[in-house]
């Protein structure tokens, strides 16, 4: 049992701590971000080296190393975006009256360079693990990428809990692209697909003939998928997800509930926390 429990526990602890650390750094004063990114870029270089070095290591340790290194690469992606270093050509709110594809195009422009950096990270990991027996870094990165994209699309389409307290002040304009809704058509599909993927990974880890390397790596991936599914649940369920990382959001924890987001129809001229006329008239 320990062969499955230890990798799962490791995945939970590393996921929880790394998420909190990134939130903590993102919410520090802007003057500290450059130094954080320098340190983060050093960690990125080390992580890429570790992925390449562990690609041929088909042991339990190799699976742990690959997962941890891929998480560091993803952490750099998140830091560079939320600190505003690699975002997109549109660092402003949603245009007033934008609907449909125009709204989606404006939202995509806020993170275009970020998406390109994610693709570059994927290609780097793919090249480092090409033809190698240990590809758990690649699978880890793909899970993080896919579930992050799913969460962002659900936030764009509308969810119950926007978790805007996670956004640093300099990214407050992103609230105008989010929408509060009881449900959206994508959400059940996202959760069902994530649940099936989690179940498939669990079955693979429990399968006969799985090596110690595969058991460790697949157990970690299954746990990561389960955590990503749980994070999707936080978008709809009335649960205080921010409480998990209260230690990394001290100012927000003391200040109480975050201001309401701008309704998506308000655009960049609206004031934070105030409903716009179009939203009021539509009720």
TrEMBL record:
It holds the Pfam family DUF3623. This is Photosynthetic complex assembly protein 2. InterPro entries: Photo_alph_chp2. It comes from Methylobacterium jeotgali. Keywords: Membrane, Transmembrane, Transmembrane helix. It comes from the Bacteria. The chain crosses the membrane at residues 6-25, 37-55, 112-132, 138-157, 185-206, 218-239.
């Amino acid at each position: 049992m320990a062969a499955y429990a230890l990798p799962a526990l490791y995945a939970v602890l590393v996921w929880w701590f790394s998420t909190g650390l990134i939130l903590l750094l993102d919410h520090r004063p802007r003057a500290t971000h450059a130094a954080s990114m320098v340190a983060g870029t050093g960690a990125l270089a080390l992580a890429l080296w570790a992925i390449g070095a562990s690609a041929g290591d088909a042991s339990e340790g190799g699976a742990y190393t690959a997962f941890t290194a891929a998480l560091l690469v993803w952490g750099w992606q998140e830091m560079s975006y939320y600190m505003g270093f690699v975002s997109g050509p549109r660092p402003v709110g949603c245009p007033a009256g934008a609907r449909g594809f125009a709204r989606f195009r404006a939202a995509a422009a806020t993170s275009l360079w970020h998406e390109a950096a994610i693709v570059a990270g994927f290609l780097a990991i793919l090249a480092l693990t090409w033809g190698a027996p240990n590809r758990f870094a690649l699978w880890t990165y793909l899970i993080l990428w896919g579930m992050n994209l799913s969460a962002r699309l659900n936030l764009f389409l509308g969810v119950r809990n926007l978790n805007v307290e996670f956004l640093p002040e300099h990214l407050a304009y992103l609230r105008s692209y989010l929408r509060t809704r009881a449900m959206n058509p994508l959400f059940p599909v996202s959760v069902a697909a994530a649940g099936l993927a989690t179940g498939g990974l669990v079955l693979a880890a429990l399968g006969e003939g799985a090596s110690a390397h595969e058991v460790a790596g697949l157990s970690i991936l299954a746990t990561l998928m389960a955590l990503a599914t749980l994070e999707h649940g936080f978008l709809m369920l009335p649960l205080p997800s921010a409480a998990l990382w209260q230690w990394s959001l001290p100012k927000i924890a003391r200040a109480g509930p975050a201001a309401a987001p701008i309704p998506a129809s308000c655009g960049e001229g609206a004031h934070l926390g105030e409903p716009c006329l179009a939203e009021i008239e539509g009720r």
